[in-house]
Write a structure and sequence with these properties.
540 residues, alpha/beta, 5-stranded parallel β-sheet, 4-stranded mixed β-sheet, 19% strand
């Protein structure tokens, strides 16, 4: 999550988190829809492209990210001749994992050699899949991509404020239990003021009081205090044991005023949001396993290291100019139709034959700044020392969060943390730094939460998305105003060209958006092609 405020103003991300905690995930998701950040998925199973194209009908697809490969797979299966031009030397796009032994050179020339152990990795792009992203999960199933649970929610992780609780990170379960318990106590007192006489009967009020007692871990006096009941929720100071001296020691709740002033409660509602509700998944071995599975299925259709320089179209064909980044030679690829999944941040710089409306739409969507930092440590101290197995700790430091690996638990040995995930002003600032300085700062900030950082840190890698050459940003940022003015034009078939990708969806910033966008685009394109063929035959 981003900083709480920007220049003293309530940020949109902060507002959405507050909505989520106060009113629940459903309300949060509706607010996100209103603000253009999300929308419900619309996947009903594998698409069926009815009718057949004329033999030899060709489609060139620009980009071998998930949108491009979904389009290629379904169009090939429907009988089209498909070719894919890809800027990189490999498939996946933002579906990307950096493994030990990999190297990456960002815009500006800074090269990072990933010094993680061979079995360790970090996902610079997408790193989790919600259970309701049915389209992506279906392709994982069809392509036999092995998935495992991604631990989003961990009561034993931390909520941290640098200026409160003496800078000491607080267990999520402590803040959650104490906030919920003391708010429940306040609500129970409000019931006794008879303000609820109108909406609730006496019997209903009694049932509500009992619900509050259970929900807030209140004692027989409807108070949230140190004792067995509250410790059963927030945890004991000393856990129950066996044999002599086994009696548990009750823990002391934090004061409500301290919690409220600290603002750490802002991040308590994140896990209740529809986007982040369990169950969540990740591919075994890294997110790039999904891209690799698509790549294996589509082997032979790719032209790699192809930097698109021009997209020209006339009444009968699309001609794509591209430069081979290895040889430096210029080439062209001609096809009947084109599905373009190039990020708008890149597409806006390409010589493109398209309508004014499409050009305006492409230019209207900026891309979010974001930085991710992966840190390898000599041992999994978060497990050994602090009993944190997966999940995320949140902080108001610029790194915003630390995510603990969901794989390899209890195995011992080394491990890689997501040591920082930044958006907004912090991401812009960190993008200007060298990779080495990003890593250094992530270690310095992280040590305020985990002092073990100083002794256990081994190596790191830091990806700033505005310096990633093939995207120049993390994801397309829509507003209500830009969607109203440009979204329909962006998604329309423009001559012999149609766009797809997360930017052409209401599930932007997620892989699901890329998949759903591609399925929608090729369904409309196929209908048009088959429809025109039918009209021609009728006219003949």
């Amino acid at each position: 999550m981003s900083q709480v405020s920007q220049g003293g103003r309530l940020t949109r991300r902060h507002f959405l988190t507050m909505v989520g905690y106060a009113a629940g995930g459903a309300a949060m998701y509706q607010a996100m829809m209103r603000l253009g950040h999300a929308a419900e998925g619309s996947y009903d199973g594998p698409i069926r492209l009815e009718g057949k194209p004329r033999p030899g009908t060709s489609v060139v697809i620009l980009g071998a990210g998930l949108a491009g490969m979904v389009a290629a797979l379904e169009l090939r299966n429907a009988g089209y001749q498909v070719k894919i031009l890809e800027y990189r030397h490999k498939v996946g796009g933002r579906n990307w994992t950096l493994h030990g032994g990999d190297s990456y050179t960002e815009l500006g020339g800074a090269r990072q050699d990933v010094k993680f152990d061979k079995d360790q990795y970090i996902n610079p792009g997408p790193w989790r899949i919600p259970f309701h992203h049915r389209a992506l999960l279906d392709y994982c199933k069809r392509l036999k991509v092995k998935l495992e649970p991604f631990i989003q929610y961990n009561y034993n992780a931390y909520l941290h404020s640098k200026d409160h609780f003496n800078g000491k990170p607080q267990r999520f379960r402590h803040i959650h239990a104490d906030f919920q318990g003391q708010v429940s106590e306040l609500l129970s007192k409000a019931i006794h003021t008879h303000l609820l006489d109108a909406p609730l009967s006496t019997e209903d009020q009694e049932k509500l009081l009992e619900a509050l007692r259970s929900w807030g871990a209140l004692d027989k006096n409807m108070a949230y205090v140190k004792g067995h009941t509250s410790s059963e929720v927030r945890g004991f100071e000393r856990d129950p044991g066996g044999g002599l001296h086994a009696q548990p020691e009750f823990s002391e709740p934090l004061k409500l005023a301290d919690i409220v002033r600290s603002s750490v409660w802002h991040n308590m509602g994140i896990h209740d949001l529809y986007e982040f509700q369990q169950t969540m998944f990740q591919p075994v071995g890294g997110m790039d396993q999904i891209g690799a599975a698509f790549g294996n299925e589509l082997e032979g259709l790719f032209t790699f290291n192809a930097k698109v320089t021009a997209i020209k179209q006339n009444d009968g064909k699309v001609t794509v100019g591209y430069k081979d980044q290895i040889t430096g030679r210029e080439h062209t690829e001609m096809a009947d139709w084109c599905v373009c999944t190039i990020p708008l941040s890149i597409l806006s710089q390409i010589d493109l034959d398209a309508s004014k409306a499409l050009h305006a739409a492409i230019d209207a969507v900026p891309y979010a700044p974001s930085v991710k930092v992966g840190l390898q440590f000599k041992r999994r101290f978060w497990e050994d020392d602090e009993a944190i197995y997966g999940g995320i700790s949140y902080t108001d430091l610029p790194i915003t969060q630390i995510s603990y690996p969901s794989a390899g638990m209890m195995a011992g040995g080394k491990g890689v943390l997501l040591g920082g995930y930044m958006f907004g002003p912090s991401a812009v600032e960190w993008t200007s730094l060298s990779p080495e300085d990003r890593i250094r700062k992530a270690v310095e900030y992280g040590a305020q939460i985990h002092p073990q950082y100083k002794d256990e840190f081994e190596s790191g890698v830091a990806v700033a998305w505005h310096r990633v050459p093939w995207t120049l940003g993390c994801y397309g940022m829509w507003t209500d105003q830009t969607r109203a003015a440009h979204y329909e034009n962006l998604c329309q078939i423009d001559g012999r060209l149609v766009l797809a990708g997360e930017h052409a969806s209401y599930v932007n910033a997620w892989q699901e958006g890329a998949v759903l966008s591609a399925l929608n685009a090729i369904t409309r394109l196929h209908s048009r092609i088959v429809g025109e063929q039918h009209a021609d035959s009728q006219g003949g």
